[in-house]
Design a protein that fits this description.
CATH topology of the largest domain: Nuclear Transport Factor 2, Chain: A
Structural class: alpha+beta
CATH class of the largest domain: Alpha Beta
Distance between the termini: 32 Å
Largest sheet: 7 strands, mixed
Strand content: 35-45%
Number of strands: 13
Radius of gyration: 19 Å
Strand order of the largest sheet: 3-4-5-6-1-2-7
Number of domains: 2
Length: 331
């Protein structure tokens, strides 16, 4: 059946990136051919500039889980009018925590978490990568208190080609996506919900919708969707929520899908899963994907880097160069 499905534009580079960077640590000819020398990886925790920085950014979790297995669960891509290709992928990473480093001393526990990726391809090479890892799922699996982990991470030295994510990070603004109705409708729903229209989830989500959220949370139904997004807004009530890219598609043998890149930028001035308000400035990079059925959204994946948010809150006004993140916060 695979022979009946035509590979979409940008898929070749995306597959090379997944295999070379996150699956096999093969940074040879295929990786170099697919990735531009001056590529920038915009991570949930830091910004990595240049092919070498991007390549080495993958090593920490590989050391922590030497036997880890990476599966690409889904991928959607589109060619823009200016000949660039954009794409989004959702990965599932699993393995045994048998190595030290980023997640502390080895525990021997099995861990599993999502990684979501968006790429831009120009002249057959990836020039920009947006990558979010569900750090919260790992911390939960290892019984690590996120606040303590964030404190531990705030300590060594970042190389010059790595900049920690904080309120000073460049504002990239909204970027071109495609004209998918699915992406536009879902984007509009989330934007309206984050402005207070949380009742929309009851109207637009399937009663049995399967939901996968930051922290390794799995849930079902509109009320659970409402709870996730309402908690995020409650933690950062005055923060600006923006959808930065919308991508959707109707591929053969697949349900209609959409992928969004979004951002929250503002103060931690509300109550919720990040504790008492601190007034600290934060930037949250989020990636979301959804599938649709006759009763609305039937599956959703939305993640952001919980560890990065805690680091920003614990440090406060984080000044760009922070320890541990280069070698500690990696996918």
């Amino acid at each position: 059946m695979k022979d009946l499905v035509t590979e979409q534009s940008g898929d070749v580079q995306m597959r090379a990136l997944i295999d070379g960077l996150w699956r096999s640590a093969n940074f040879g000819a295929v990786f170099e051919k697919a990735v531009h020398r001056d590529v920038v990886l915009h991570g949930g925790e830091a910004e990595y500039k240049g092919r070498l920085a991007v390549a080495t950014s993958a090593l920490g979790p590989m050391v922590a889980c030497p036997d880890r297995h990476v599966i690409c669960e889904d991928m959607v891509s589109h060619k823009l009018a200016d000949a660039r290709d954009i794409g989004a992928a959702r990965l599932r990473v699993s393995g045994r925590h048998a190595g030290g480093g980023v997640w502390g001393a080895p525990t021997g526990r099995d861990i599993s978490y999502s990684v979501m990726v968006e790429t831009t391809v120009s002249d057959d090479r990836i020039t920009d990568i947006w990558r979010v890892r569900d750090t919260g799922a790992v911390l939960s699996a290892l019984d690590i208190v996120p606040e303590k982990w964030a404190d531990d991470m705030l300590g060594a030295t970042l190389p010059d080609d790595v900049v920690f994510t904080d309120a000073a990070v460049t504002d990239h603004g909204a970027e071109a996506g495609n004209n998918s109705d699915w992406a536009h409708v879902w984007s509009d729903l989330l934007e309206r919900a984050m402005e207070g229209g949380f009742q929309l989830f009851d109207q637009q989500y399937d009663p049995g919708a399967a939901l996968h959220y930051a922290g390794g949370v799995t849930a079902h139904g509109p009320k659970s969707a409402q709870a996730f997004w309402l908690n995020l807004r409650s933690c950062f009530p005055s923060a600006e929520f923006r959808i930065l890219r919308k991508l959707g598609g109707d591929a053969p043998l697949a349900a209609p899908r959409a992928a969004l890149r979004w951002e929250m930028r503002g103060r931690h001035d509300g109550w919720g899963s990040f504790g008492a308000p601190t007034g600290k400035e934060v930037v949250i990079l989020g990636l979301s994907q959804a599938e649709f059925g006759p009763d609305g959204v039937r599956r959703e994946w939305s993640i952001f880097d919980v560890g990065s948010v805690w680091m920003q809150i614990r440090k406060g006004g984080i000044s760009s160069r922070l320890a541990g993140t280069a070698g500690a916060l990696k996918t």
